[in-house]
Structure formats: structure tokens, C-alpha cells
Design brief:
Length: 509
């Protein structure tokens, strides 16, 4: 059957050839709409008499114009697209703060078990006891690892977890008659999601400066605290890759002022199994399962950002949560009659990610998780030592935690910027490190190798980085300023793409 048998015009025929740019062997992949002609489909279906009787005015008037592709054509399209994407399965991915660690295949195997993969959130609770057991067991271990009293499992990303934790703080203040507190303190090195979360909830954000050593200035915190402050949002280890030495004192000062301590737990990978945030005085902290607990990030699968809560905030946790009822597990679904802040998501969170994260935990054990954290810190310090003689490191006198922060001082006078350097790394086969974050250092380069990388991989990476730095200093500027040379796409108009995104294919007529 061809679509036009139903009276539709055939699709616009254009010859789309693969275009090669630079020296890449990877062809740019056209859109499905450009490679698939609308006048045929990939499958043979018998002709049907379409009846418009029951659709009335809703009967489609214009052709559907879906691209017709055979199964191998569709397959190749998606495989080619995937080859344009850098991934942790393809190479070292030093994107600081993002903890791009290996996603163990055992996790994938467990998540694909039909009892987990095929459950539906509206199934009768008696038929999903195993799946709810996984949520409950993961929740339990997250509380053990953090020494906290409750955990909200439904948030779907770190930023969503921040929202959940800050909503719990907001609800607690209202319940305590402290609803007048309107200020949230946020250190200058914070991830952008922290001030965004506070502002989204209507709080005024008050920045807290960092000391010369990259850690939060406790005297600035004490000075900023008042009866108007609702919370502090502090990242620990912080985004300069440093453990906050005054964290306990800061927590005490915050509590004394009647405020709560939100901890951004995105960097938990550096301390899991070693330090418990609950012991450091936190009231709420999100945990990015897609960072610390090895589940795939964004494009590779949905994220998950469970939030652990202190005893003070536990009553305000959102629904649903798992509870025991005469030997059976059930979900508490309704907030009525409790202090719960209500419901954040339609269902119970990211089941596939829960299964993967619990698999990671159980396959490591408590000692294995601590070992992973130690190895992550060791790997970062190894890179710090290998790069330290050439790369400028603003807080370089101290050991770092799981990531190394460089600034662009070492590029001074070369005509090469942090952005150029990152683009040149693409030509060497690496995903760039995090750039221009945190904002507290100029031209930041934040490198996080994670514990997944072997000594050999770290040495190869260090070798490349040192070779690039030497080339920049030797005046080989073009290698940087016009990089990437070997990627299928060169420099893109990122601002234009963000300001004026083209999200829909328009048929050219
Ligand atoms: C990744 C990250 C976040 C946000 O987490 P998402 O899961 O990406 O929403 C917040 N803070 C820090 C420090 C992070 O690294």
C-alpha cells in the first residue's frame, strides 16, 4: 500500500545525501522526515476503507505526511545518530560535577527483569509487592548511608529534588508559624539550580562569598543569618571539589537562627560510605542516582533525585511513600490529615532507576561503596598531581575531593580560551570537562574522572591534556580557536539555538 492510494499527495521528493564536514568519517544524519518518503511505508498493510462517519468534523483534512521507512532504514538512522553522540561507553567523560561513571551492565540486566520492567503504576498493589519492595529497600539504604529519618523517592532529577526539599522546608516554616522567613542563603560557588529553586519558590536569594581557599566563609554566613532567613543551600563537597571544613559549625549556626540546612548532595560520590550528611547537620539533601549510584544520565535514561530528610522535616515528606501494613507493603497515597507537603509527581518515581541504583548498592556492599568514593577521590588527586605543574589550580595547595578545578591562568597570552581548549579536546577523542563553572574562578575547567577510570586511562587523558597545554603555549592557536576539526559539526551558534530553537520539522514546499 502506498499512502497516496488514500488520496493524499505524495511526499516531496528530495535527494538527501550524507554530508561530511571536517575530516570526520561520521556522516551527518538527516532527519527521519528527510530520508523517509511519505508515499510508502515500511510495512505492508491491507488497504482499508476509511470511514469518516464517526469522526465528523475531526476527520483529518490534510495528509499525515509521516516518513515511510523500512525497519533497516529506521534502525540505521538511530544507530547513526547514536554514533554522533559521545557517551561514557565510548570513552572517559570528565564532565565535572556530573559524575559520569560507568553504568554497570548488571544494573541493566536487573532493570530488564519483566517483574520490574513491565510493571504499571496503576496495577493492584498486591501484584507489585516485589517492585515496591525494591523502592522500600533502596529508600532504607539511602537513609542508612546519610543517617536521616525519611526519604522522598519520587523526585525525578537533582533539581526536582531541590524543589522537593525546599518545599518541605517551606511547609515546616509555615507549620511552625515562621512563614515570614523569605531569604535563602546560597554560596557563590553553587550550582545554578540552587538559586533557581529558591527563587522559583518565591524566596529572595542572598549570595554568600567564598574565602580565598574556595570554601564557604562561615563568618559571612553568621552575618547573613537573621529571623528572616528560611534556609541555606550548601553543596558539600562543594563545586570547587573541596570538602567544607566548617560544615558542622555552619549547620549549628543555621539551626540556632531557626533556619534549615538544605545540602546539595550531587557530589555525594566523594563521601558515600565514609561520611553521613545527617551527622553533619543537614535537614534535606537530594541524591542524584544518575551520578552517585551509576544509573544513566539524561539522554541515556531518566534521572532520579530522591531527597533524604531530617527528623525535623520528615513529617512534611511528599506522598506517595511505602509503608508496612500487617506484613504487606503499601503506598501511602494521600496527604490529607497529615503534614505532608502533598504530591510532586503523578506516580512513584523512576522504577527503572531504583532497580539499577539498588543493584549498584548491593553489588558493592557498604565497604565497596566506600572504596568507590575513595577511588574517585584518589583518581581526581592523581590527575591533579599529573596536571598540576602546567595547569593553574586556584585552590591547588589542598587535596581535592572527587574533582579537580583549574582556571585559565595557564592560558594567559596564548589567545586560547577555556572554550577553545575544550573544543580541541573533542579532536583528541574526549568529551570536554565542565567549563566556566563554578563561577568563582575565571575560565573554570572542572575535571571529574570518577572511580571508573583505570590508571592507564588516566595517564592517557593526562598525556593529552598536557600535550594540548604545550601546543597552546607554543602558539599553535589555530588548533584551538577553530576546533573541533574532526567532529561532524564544528562550532555551532549555541546562543541562537537556545534563543530561537527550531523544534519542529517544517515541510519545504
Ligand atoms: C547535577 C547537579 C545538580 C542538578 O542535578 P540534575 O539531576 O541535573 O537536575 C545540582 N547541583 C549540583 C552541584 C550538580 O552537580
Amino acid at each position: 500500500m502506498s499512502m497516496n492510494q488514500q488520496g493524499r499527495p505524495t511526499g516531496v521528493k528530495r535527494s538527501v545525501t550524507n554530508s561530511f564536514e571536517g575530516a570526520s568519517l561520521l556522516p551527518l544524519e538527516p532527519l527521519l522526515f528527510e530520508i523517509g518518503a511519505t508515499d510508502h511505508t515500511g510495512v505492508d498493510l491491507p488497504d482499508v476503507e476509511l470511514s469518516s462517519a464517526r469522526l465528523g468534523a475531526f476527520t483529518r483534512q490534510s495528509p499525515l505526511d509521516l516518513p515511510g521507512l523500512s525497519e533497516p532504514e529506521a534502525m540505521r538512522h538511530y544507530v547513526r545518530l547514536s554514533r554522533l553522540n559521545y557517551s561514557i561507553d565510548a570513552g572517559l567523560y570528565p564532565l565535572g560535577s556530573c559524575t559520569m561513571k560507568h553504568n554497570p551492565r548488571l544494573n541493566e540486566k536487573m532493570a530488564r527483569l519483566p517483574g520490574f520492567a513491565d510493571v504499571h503504576p496503576l496495577q493492584p498493589i498486591s501484584t507489585v509487592q516485589g517492585a515496591i519492595g525494591v523502592i522500600s529497600e533502596l529508600a532504607e539504604w539511602l537513609m542508612v548511608l546519610t543517617n536521616t529519618s525519611a526519604v522522598a523517592m519520587s523526585p525525578k532529577a537533582g533539581a526536582h529534588g531541590e524543589l522537593c526539599g525546599m518545599m518541605a522546608i517551606h511547609a515546616a516554616h509555615i507549620a511552625n508559624g515562621e512563614g515570614h522567613r523569605t531569604i535563602v542563603l546560597v554560596p557563590e560557588s553553587a550550582h545554578g539550580t540552587n538559586p533557581a529553586t529558591a527563587a522559583f519558590l518565591g524566596y529572595k536569594v542572598k549570595p554568600i562569598p567564598a574565602k580565598a581557599d574556595g570554601t564557604v566563609d562561615i563568618s559571612a554566613v553568621e552575618e547573613a543569618l537573621s529571623s528572616d532567613v528560611a534556609a541555606i543551600m550548601l553543596t558539600n563537597p562543594n563545586t570547587c571539589g573541596l570538602f567544607e571544613p566548617d560544615v558542622k559549625k555552619i549547620a549549628d549556626a543555621v539551626h540556632k537562627a531557626g533556619a534549615y540546612f538544605y545540602c546539595d548532595g550531587a557530589n555525594f560520590n566523594a563521601i558515600m560510605g565514609i561520611a553521613r550528611p545527617g551527622d553533619l547537620g543537614i535537614d534535606a539533601m537530594h541524591i542524584n542516582l544518575h551520578k552517585t549510584f551509576s544509573t544513566p544520565h539524561g539522554g541515556g535514561g531518566p534521572g532520579a533525585g530522591p531527597v533524604v530528610l531530617s527528623k525535623a522535616l520528615a513529617p512534611f515528606a511528599p506522598v506517595p511513600f511505602v509503608r508496612q501494613n500487617s506484613g504487606k507493603l503499601e503506598l501511602a497515597e494521600h496527604a490529607q490529615g497529615s503534614k505532608s507537603l502533598g504530591r510532586l509527581t503523578a506516580f512513584h518515581g523512576q522504577m527503572g532507576m531504583f532497580t539499577r541504583a539498588l543493584t549498584y548498592m548491593l553489588s558493592h556492599g557498604g565497604d565497596g561503596l566506600a572504596q568507590a568514593a575513595n577511588d574517585a577521590v584518589l583518581n581526581a588527586n592523581y590527575l591533579k598531581a599529573r596536571l598540576g605543574a602546567v595547569f593553574s589550580m586556584p585552590f591547588g595547595e589542598q587535596h581535592c575531593m572527587h574533582e579537580v578545578l583549574c582556571d585559565d591562568d595557564f592560558l594567559e597570552g596564548t589567545g586560547v580560551t577555556t572554550l577553545d581548549f575544550a573544543k580541541a579536546m573533542i579532536d583528541e577523542g574526549y568529551h570536554p570537562m565542565t567549563m566556566y563553572f563554578p563561577l568563582v574562578v575565571h575560565g573554570a575547567m572542572l575535571i571529574e574522572p570518577t572511580e571508573s577510570e583505570s590508571l592507564k586511562a588516566l595517564d592517557a587523558f593526562a598525556h593529552t591534556m598536557l600535550e594540548l597545554a604545550a601546543a597552546a603555549k607554543a602558539g599553535d592557536t589555530d588548533r584551538f580557536t577553530s576546533a573541533p576539526h574532526k567532529a561532524p559539526m564544528r562550532r555551532l551558534d549555541e546562543t541562537g539555538a537556545a534563543r530561537n530553537p527550531k523544534l519542529k520539522w517544517e515541510k519545504s514546499r
